[in-house]
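Write out this protein's structure.
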Amino acid sequence: MLVNLDYVLSRAKKEKYGVGLFNTTDTDMLEAVISAAEELRAPVIIGTAEVLLPAGELKLIAPSIIAAAKRATVPVVVHYDHGLTFERCMEALQLGFSSVMFDGSAGDYDKNIAYTREVVKIAHAFGATVEGEIGHVGQADACDNDASDMYTKVEEAVAYMNATGVDALAVSIGTAHGAYKSKPKLDLNRLNEISKAIPTPLVLHGGSGLSDDDFRNSIANGISKVNIFTDLCVAGNRAMEQGLKEGKAYLDIRNMKVEEIKKEVMKKMKLFGCDGRY
């Protein structure tokens, strides 16, 4: 069942559980994620990000993702993550994505507001939802664990929401994208304050590599959507390495990869508390 973010996140926020966004750059990952959601009766968000398009161009993978979402018996959001350009966000909407993220967080604040507001206006006309970001979630390989000046401020979150009308808000509280070199330090007090200040569901980027307690505490303090990608890649790599070591055939290795990624997705869904919701 193809739905937008409002459909799954409004309930998640109310009942205090998280819904995972699992980026899927190919049909192997897509099969693993959808199968996990069906088996656990969990809502799920799938899609891709602009930085991942070299590994799976939109026009190539969009038909498969959207068709799988429509066939599913659980709610599936097809989300274009970290859209860095207005043109790519429009392309995703035209291809049938039910949600997009416009990420202007690393650039000029006024331009971020203006572009995000315009994306919201157009996406809503498509019946789609929009995620925005205020504050900036950087890369783990460049993270020095002392980037609090990039963290989302409560007053900024309120002003951004009022100015753009996004349906979900990604906040920076100490996470980063990619594999962490050192343990991240999450500002849960700041997260709690932001959650209390705005009614919009909050999003945690850079989820791969956090501890189970980090996830639980983040969800308890206001996170409704959690982004995961690196952990899926690690699981897939592990399966392929094992298959090659055992001298398996290509298709056998492919199936091992799908199964290992599926296990990782199911582990995250249970941890986020979204299993058994549908």
